[in-house]
Amino acid sequence: MQDPKNQQNDPDKKKGSDNNGQPQPPNPRMNRSITLLMGLIVLGVVMLVMFSGRQEPAEQKRAGELLNFVEQGAVKRVIVHENRVEAELREGVPNAPPNGRIYVSVNPDGREYLSDTIMEIDPSLVEWQPSSQLMPVLLGTLPWVLLLLIVWFFLFRSLRGMGGGGGMLGNFGRSKHKVVSKEMTNFTLNDVAGVQEAKEEVWEIVEFLKNPKKFQRLGGRIPRGVLLIGEPGCGKTLLAKAVAGEAEVPFFSISGSDFVEMFVGVGASRVRDLFKQAKESSPCIIFLDEIDAVGRKRGSGFNSGGHDEREQTLNAILVEMDGFESNDQVIVMAATNRADVLDPALTRPGRFDRQIVVPLPDLQGRFEILKVHAKKIKMGPDVDLEKLARSTPMFSGADLAAIINEAAIIATLSSKDFVEQYDFEEARDKVRYGRAYKSRKMDEEDRIGTAYHEAGHAVAEYLLPHADPLHKVTIIPRGQSLGSTMSLPEKDRQGYGVKYLHDTMRVLCAGRIAENRKTGDVTSGAAMDIRMATRFARYMVLEWGMSERLGFVDYATPRDNGGGMPEKNYSEQTARIVDEEVKRLVDEAFSDAEKLIEDNWEKLVVLAEELLKYETLNAEEVDKIMHGEKLHKPTVSELLDAEAAKVAPGRSDSRADNPTSDGAGPESEGPFPSPA
To answer: What's the rounded Cα separation, in Å, for the pair 11 and 33?
Structure first.
């Protein structure tokens, strides 16, 4: 016998038939609705006929005018009411209203006087009719009653029928989740790379859903909740999509922001509706993306009232996950990059039992991620994905996917048949540092200052042993900077040592020092260098215990004073010492960088002049210059001249005579790639 629950989804069964295929009787609820609708239609027709049959209202006159009409014999009859006297005039009476009806408003004394006077003239005209207020009241209120009935029938009844978990809120209370199946995603855990440990933990959830008796054999219980924590772009949502592709159960997906609406209580109603549908489809998985939108700590900040919409939504989630009616067959997965702001009641065992950290990929992970995304593009024989993985430390999975896509776009715009290694390197620099603005014109004075500024960074980075190795230096504007010195870490850095921090701060100071020595002026171009050097020094003093005066103490952890405003947990005297230590570290780095630049000024000048000629130098070329060797490659002007000389024979082109015109100057990229 077929399960009646599953019969709802059976396409072979027709609506209106029972399990045996026999016609079902009409729904009594539907009959009542149809009867009510027909009654409203009939009532509307009756009202329409009633109002259309009513005569136009009579015209008000004075008592003397009515008596004149009576004396002239122009009145057919006079009807005396309680508070007025009406008269019907004969046809053809001059100055008569169009409908031939007039009336006079009277009080009791005026009614007696007017009726007696008319009786004296012609008693047969007068008719007495007691006045009733029922009909005017009905005629005045009945249209409004009819309108309210129509609104109630078509609006409130329909909303109540669609309300589900939301009741009279209608569709506002319905959950906005999406049910994802394996066929819809076409994405499995085999398509996820770089997060092997996270994949293994998630696979346990999939195994339980497929074979729960295997885990229950020894009395174990699967975690009710799995919280994915990691930086943006690390693959948390991607991992959830893979689970949806692997699990052969319904997968309910919804974002945390979908619970919050302008109406208070809608979020909690949607939570209840979501879990109600999930329990009906158990075993299943619920995925809450960006749960920090509704899962923030309660009672903090300025929205600490008990009727806050987010707090009501969070309370509903807490009750549904581990309330009196807990269900082990519903597993909740959630993703966030702000685990520090989540409410402790949400992350305790019994709700989100397992917290899976999705970290930035290491060298092997980056290589695996690049291989997965590189399957979609055509690559040239010179492509080395392992080298690209080594040159992208601290890149997230989303960054690596963007590099592959950008490289394909760059190769397409260059009309190449496949993507080359150069395209990948250019795409990497574009993703990390921004687009290169090769057409931007720079004033010669700014160009010289930028060259010496970047040469100062490059020389310091080349000479200091504990700084990151130099990768490339360029004076082509990229992103928001006029030039950039790019480093290439040798390994994935999990922490910062004092030697590395000292050398990095000296590299940051060297640019301003070299620029000032050449031009005799300082510019705002060192703003980012100053910000980074100050930030390093402040972290060293406050958090990392690298100051001898303050010692092994953490001064950076703020305390919440209840109003959402963190306060310092150290005294004013300590604050003065902190400022002095930060200033000391930066001043020492600046002084050491000045001495380094002064001792190697001749090499720096040569490097800056070469930068002005070639605009971009890689690490090998900088190494040759620092050892006194000459570079043998075409300069930027030579490349532009060669481009201008490539004009078809017999065709006139002004660019051949004027290399700096609109078509071939530095402001145009042309078919030749830039030295950058």
So the answer is: 28
| Secondary structure class of 415 (helix, strand, coil) | coil
> What letter would DSSP give residue 288?
E
**Cα R_g (the chain), whole angstroms:** 42
Token readout for 578 is 């902190």
Residues in the chain: 676
Question: In Å, what is the CA distance from 347 to each residue of 136, 223, 227, 367?
Answer: 68, 12, 8, 33
Q: Evaluate if residue 77 carries a pLDDT over 90.
A: no
Q: Which of 227, 335, 224, 220 is nearest to 284 (CA)?
A: 224
Residue carrying the six token digits 């090998």: 620
Give percent of the chain above pLDDT 70.
72
The per-residue b/e assignment along 161-187, b for 16 or more CB within 10 angstroms, e otherwise, is eebbbbeebbebbbbebeebeeeebeb
Tell me which residues are annotated as active site: 454
Beta carbons within 8 Å of 413's beta carbon, 6+ residues apart: none
- Is the pLDDT confidence value at 316 over 90? no
* pLDDT tens string 28-51: 555 556 666 666 676 666 666 555
The Cβ of residue 497 has, within 10 Å, a number of other Cβ atoms equal to 12
Distance CA 313, CA 256 (A): 10
**Alpha-carbon gap, residue 523 to 443, rounded angstroms:** 14
List, in sequence order, every residue forming a beta bridge with 129; answer none if it has no partner: none
- DSSP-assigned beta bridge partners for residue 84: 105
CB atoms within 10 A of CB 534: 16
Residues 386-404, mean pLDDT to the nearest whole number: 89
Do the beta carbons of residue 541 and residue 582 sit within 8 Å?
yes
Rounded distance between C-alpha atoms, residue 147 and residue 153, angstroms: 10
Q: Which residue matches tokens 């978990």?
A: 165
Runs of H (alpha helix) within 391-523: 397-413, 421-433, 444-463, 498-519
Q: And the tokens for 208?
A: 């339980």
- Residue 567 CB neighbour total at 10 angstroms: 9
Starting at the earlier edge strand, list the strands of the sheet with 330-336. Answer: 178-180, 251-255, 284-289, 330-336, 225-229, 354-357
Strand, coil or helix: what is 81? coil
Distances (CA, A) of 288 to 181, 251, 255, 327, 356: 16, 11, 5, 17, 15
Taking the C-alpha atoms of residue 69 and residue 91, their distance in angstroms, rounded to an integer, is 12
Rounded-to-integer distance, Cα 434 and Cα 481, Å: 9
Asked whether 165 and 173 are in contact (CB, 8 A), the reply is yes
CA distance 494 to 535: 18
Short-list 150, 170, 167, CA closest to 159? 170
Task: Say yes or no to pLDDT of 597 above 80.
Answer: yes
